[in-house]
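Standup notes
- DV: blocked on the single-chain target, sequence here:
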Amino acid sequence: MAENSFRTRSLGTAVEGVRDQYADGKAAKVWEIFIGDQNSRTKNYRNFLVDLLRKKGCKRILDVACGTGVDSIMLLEEGFDVVSIDASDKMLKYALKARWNRRKEPAFDNWVIEEANWLTLHEDIEQIIGKGFDAVICLGNSFAHMLDSYGDQRDQKKAMMNFKKCLRPGGILLIDHRNYDDAIETGYTSAKSVYYNSNHMIDIKTTVMYTCGKPSLVILDYFLDTSSFGKNEFINEDSISEFRLSYYPHRLKVFNQMLLNTFGENAYHEIYGDFKSLNEIENPAFYIHFIQKTD
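- DV (later): unblocked, structure below
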């Protein structure tokens, strides 16, 4: 296998312990093109998220994987109080720019944006947590960015516990991941996103890497048509931009158990597939988990 086949992330790290796959700026820029248009969110996604948060009486939201800020902005526009964090300063610069551009609007003037590490999250933002958030959201396959460096998911478990610690009693966690069971079985990842109506995505090529016979890494090579954006340092001459991101492949059953181990076996837990009940869809692209803190 060629040497560059093992290049799993861009150089750099925003915070020790959380690898920043957007650190070289290229992936952040092209990703912003992919999901940066706030009108590109699918109606199903917007309705699902907003309706669920309102139904559960949530007002104060912690977006722990805000990226360019697209989801946080949507929630601000819907009247929620939002605190947004991310480990990538290259991604956060787009959120900070959006806040500056709309600083005359009270919701945006009060919008808190911080760089933080999931492994030390509670300590990083302790002064902001107060009595706890009504909801923590970690969406867009973001949690899978945390690679399993030790082979026992200890970092994932620690991050999950930090999410819980940021919630008030009765607060909820919304967290998702791709259908990695299917990706491992078929070696295929759909280029269609249930989150964003992107006309720029051409293809996603999937590589599954194994350690001791077990799938340990899923590498996705994204190909986007950026011809309508002109040429710059991030856009290739042929107007097809490519970047690579690596993900830890969460198995559904294992992820379910990790959630229950964190929140308690009796915690209320629901799973959706592409924003539908699992009995409505056979093979979803994404699983979305809802779990409630009881203590």
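- Follow-up: The first strand starts at residue 60 and ends at 63.
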